[in-house]
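S1.2 Input.
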Amino acid sequence: MAQRRPARPTQRAAAVGPWGTLVVVVSGAAMTAVERTSPEQARRAWPRWLAGGVALGVLAVVAVSWADGGARLVLGAAGVLAAGRGAQLAAGGSRPIGTGAALAGAVAVAVALTSATAAGWVLLAAVPVLLLAGALTLLSRGGAVRRGGQAALVWWALVTGLLAVTGVLAGWERAAGGATVVAALGLGLLGVVLVVGATSLRAIVSRPAPARPAACAGCACSAGGCGIPR
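S1.3 Output.
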């Protein structure tokens, strides 16, 4: 009787279904950045990632439990993140996209500081749009990322339908509260990604440095190679 061969990683990813695939894709966002990080960069970055992840988790919990100011808190935090990311993109050469993200973030912060009602309406309009944009972005790629896009598209349909039904039956203020909860959960998920990434970065830092050959004094290596057969 032929033995059954173990499933390959791609097969296992497909077996978890669209919801599990979405989780894998979100966690993979942190892993992609970690794989491109040197030990020295990881030493500087992992405390910031950990602090940011914990802060976003706490913010998400507070926003969900704070009925009067949750929308302002979520929108303000999202605006700060968007403005910071936009500034990075603009400095890195993506000036149109970076400038647009920075301006959108600044407007979001301004609205959050002005009115709780306006912040709720902004989130009610922005949450379905951002979910759809993220799903379409993932669908444009291949492999497991595309399957994650399919799961994200299902999430977009469920969330948008739920918000619309809530608005029609219970009032649009109630729907804005639901959008605030969804946005807070999104920030919490981003916090989880950062904590997972910080753990991986910390593992890179604690990894022992490769041992030098016994006859190596360091000078030949700095000139391009010691020439000792490995």
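S1.4 Remarks. The longest helix spans residues 172-206.
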